[in-house]
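Quick one - first record:
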Amino acid sequence: MEYTHHIYRDAFRDCSKPVLFQCLVVTTIIFPLFIVYTFGVYISTAISLSRLARHNFNGNSADASGANLGPALHVLYLLALVQGVLHTYGVAFILTRHKVVSRVTEEYAVIKSVHRYAAQIWAKCWQDPSSVRGRNLATHAVELMESASVYDYAFHDGVRIVDALIQRSIYSQHQQQHAVIRQILIRSTSSSHILGKLMEAMSWYDDDGSKDGKDMGERAARIVDHFATDIRLNNLPEGIEYISSMIQLSADTRSKDMLLQGLKILRSLAAHNDNCRVMSDTEGLVSRIMAIVSSDLLHSVHHDAWSSVALASMKLVRRLVTAPGVTGANLRREISSNGQAMTSMESILECNECQPPLRKLAIKILTQLAMDASSSMSVEKLAKSLVRIFTDGRIRKSALEALAMLCAKSKGNAVVILQADRNVVVGVLKELLLHSEEIESRISAAEILTHLRINYTEDDEYLVELKKAINDVIPEVLREVLRSGVTGKEIQKGPEADKDRFSPPGTVDIEGQDSNSINTNSSSRPRNDGQHGDVKLMAAFLYLIATIFEISKAKDLVQLADAVAPGDAAFTFAGKLKEMIERSASLDGYHKNNAHQLRIMKLITKMVISMVRNRGSSYTKEDEDLDRLMEYLCDASRAMYDIDGVMSIAGNDHGAKPPFKTLASLVKEARELWDKKKAQASSVNVNLNT
């Protein structure tokens, strides 16, 4: 044992000597050389700077050689200092370059592409600095896509960079780059060439053999989708074929992502009518678009499995059925003739397991088809379906809007809607109008009741029930309209203020008001839809009121006034209407010259015409109120003259409501009728006096 210990000790001594020698060499020779080699320039710069600061290069020597040594050392130190400064600047420049490249690669996640771009710019700048003027990452990327082959890595670099740039284009600092890309890709002479390459690259989206190919296809598809609204398919003959190949159903699970992207691109392209025409002319494309809906995958498997694809497909169909002109008519006819797809959408409409967005889209698509005379969609079948489902709170708004459009379209639709489901419609509409918490539902309910009253002309029990429901709601609706226009701060408290308390819906506490006060249960519900919603609601209510005024007789209006303000002898419709519109005009945020306010003024003018026609020959307080209201309407028609003309030309009601005359012509008609009535009353009074 002791012998073994001696052997290890001698071996350690023999090995420790070379190790110690190596450490000595490293510390005394190699390490100093490393310091000098690495930091030699900085050391010489520091020494030179120090010596130049002292101004004493040769001590006290007075001989000739010493006199010449000073200037020589001065020049030497200056050269060393300049060398150090230049070296430091170069190192700093290189570090800054790497830092900038690192930040760009970190932000855009395209490391290799940005490094290659930086290397090219560096090389060109050394050769000719003017050659890089006006160049940036965006121009570099587009040039790569334009010049390189689709299979070249340079083209791939360009696609990666452009894709990264457009993903960041929502930020303001990237808008210039985005504008450059749009200018070159869409508006340059080479745009068709570049877009053709991108669409060819999209065909790699479902490439089984290459992960890079699939990635390139995804990036190319995102670029095309981003600029799709500016693309015209008639300039890209093969473009529609590349895109339509993306929306073919297959057993491959990866095709679902490709299908979604293809539908999204087509939806963006469909924003332009020329592209819709190309889609309509492409054989089999519409059938492919509707394949997911026609296949009924939603109901045969779990609903959530294909909901996203079905939603994308129906969004595209929704855009196609709203296309204008001959193209839109052809598309609607082709879509409505696809019986399997129509049946599937009808099943979506009434399926409680389908997501509400899908059901809402089905309502809009089917309604649009039903409104088109060239389509084969059954209006009666759709109307009955809408009546069955419009009490479902998840899709009530869309169903009510569709019913309002159908009801306004024709008398036949009004008959179908009113007689559907054993006349339950009227009762539900009445309940929604008076008590719904949703402004949109109240608006649609008011419009449906109005159109039913206008278009339903059968003298039967359904009409009797409709009249009864409208007679029940009109006093409440009138109270709410006449109370609009006062903020909560202006509402007074106490019995003395009850008589003339008017406020918009939701600002009045009706508790404590006596039976002679003008009150409404509907105005006590909370309102959080904003003043814009209140204005639209007022317009819908006035549309209903104006319709009833137009078909009412003088005694009916007297009874209605008694129902609105029982026991108030001073109450007149003209006076309260003038007060209401004056209060509305004084509210903060009130915009007098807009479409909704213009429509309100037109409806009030129509009410005035009805009141004047039913005016008796004797003088009443309402005559003074009518005079003041007429003057106000004349001033309003002059103030709204410009927007009145524009909206009349544009047809702001989009065919959903009967066309109105201009406000100026309505006011003129009311004024002439009023002057004629006053002249007749004066002649009657003269005859009585004589």
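second record:
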Amino acid sequence: MTGDPEKLLSEALRAQATRAPADTSPVGYGLLSGSDLPPALRPQEPTHRVIEDVGQVPATLILLLALVLGLAAGAVVGLMTLL
């Protein structure tokens, strides 16, 4: 039983496929939404625009964060050079 693993796998899959029952489901688009109608025949559903209040981050906050991160990185590098 030390044959080629790919050959063993293909034989196992082939044997499993011959024992599987035939698919009796009707042929359709197979959509997860459950609607087998073509998009042109489906009734149009109204869409609603969601208005999201997203505030912008002020530029001063970004610059302050960059400054703090730069100082922290410089402190770590300076400490590592002293060791």
